[in-house]
Amino acid sequence: MERNIDRIITAHRQREGAGFTVRRPVPTLGLEHLDPFLLIDEMGPIDFAPGKALGAPDHPHRGFETISYILEGAVDHEDSAGHKGRIGPGDVQWMTAGGGIIHSEEPARELLEKGGRVHGFQIWVNLPSRLKLTRPRYQELSAGQIPKVQSADGLARGVIIAGEALGVRAAIATHTPIVYQDWTFDEGGEVSVDIHKEQRVLVYVFRGAVELGGRAVTDGQLAVLGAGDSVRLRGMPSGRALLLAGTPLREPVARYGPFVMNTQAELEQAFSDFESGRMGEITRTATVG
Q1: pLDDT over 50 (residue 91)
Q2: pLDDT at 289
């Protein structure tokens, strides 16, 4: 049974981090989350002049996972667990904040110095109560490590960040079953992806338009799909979309800023732990010269 559209949400624009603008379909007015997805942010595409690129300086997280997927540009990141690196075009960073981590995401130095285009996504996925305080985990996959697929006619091409499509399974490990795929279509291209009937399915179009069940979803729109066990996407000219799915946790959500817990008391504890330094800090070595 193919899933059809239940609802379409149009993304709004909002300032984040040090002041960069994102396009955000979730959360939005009257909709706090789409369990288990807490946030979907599209960063750019935006062209920064030299010296003007912005990022997200040191900030805490607890109780969920963040997934950063870069399409253009490059981001230098580091955290209080000692992870440090760079994610560039096609790369993915999947960070399980768990019990708490301090994180920094800044434009790569050459991007800051010379300017350039930035485009990418950050998605937050909730963790079940039993994993809220799990040990932080960090996974980084380069573009070459992420499986790619295409339809028999080559008109539909997918990047399989999480989940499975056309017989190809993702390389990333997730705490709970998640589908995260980037599909690009030439006109007339289509693909059918099997998705477990218990999972909530979302399709976010970020270029052109994609047809679902005979209905067009256009750039900047998020389609929330109904019941079924498969999704058929059909591309219109230059269509590109994220296919997301996850099993709803159906647990209470206590949320404020960078913390997502189950109760108000847990939320207050998260703030206390952050303010007292129990989530650690990013250790940086000063450079000379």
Answers
A1: yes
A2: 37
Tokens of 105: 């995401």
Residue pLDDT, tens place only, 171-205: 998 988 999 999 999 989 999 999 999 999 999 99
Residue type, 176: T
- CA proximity to 136, closest of 56, 63, 59: 63
The CATH code of domain 5-246 reads 2.60.120.10
- As a whole number of angstroms, the distance between CA 150 and CA 218 comes to 22
- How far CA 85 is from CA of 73, 112, 144, 156, in Å, comes to 14, 16, 16, 32
3-state SS assignment for residue 108: coil
Q: Given pLDDT bands bounded at 50, 70 and 90, which one contains residue 148?
A: very high
The amino acid at 99 = G
d(CA 114, CA 53): 9
Confidence category of residue 285, pLDDT binned at 50, 70, 90: low
> What's the rounded Cα separation, in Å, for the pair 140 and 94?
6
Task: Give the C-alpha distances (Å, rounded to integers) separating 279 from 22, 50, 157, 269, 275.
Answer: 27, 34, 41, 11, 9
Cα–Cα distance for residue pair 148/46, rounded to 1 Å: 26
Q: Are 138 and 92 in contact (CB under 8 A)?
A: no
**Rg (Cα) of the chain, in Å, rounded?**
19
Q: Which of 103, 64, 98 is nearest to 87 (CA)?
A: 103
Q: What is the mean pLDDT of residues 256-270?
A: 96
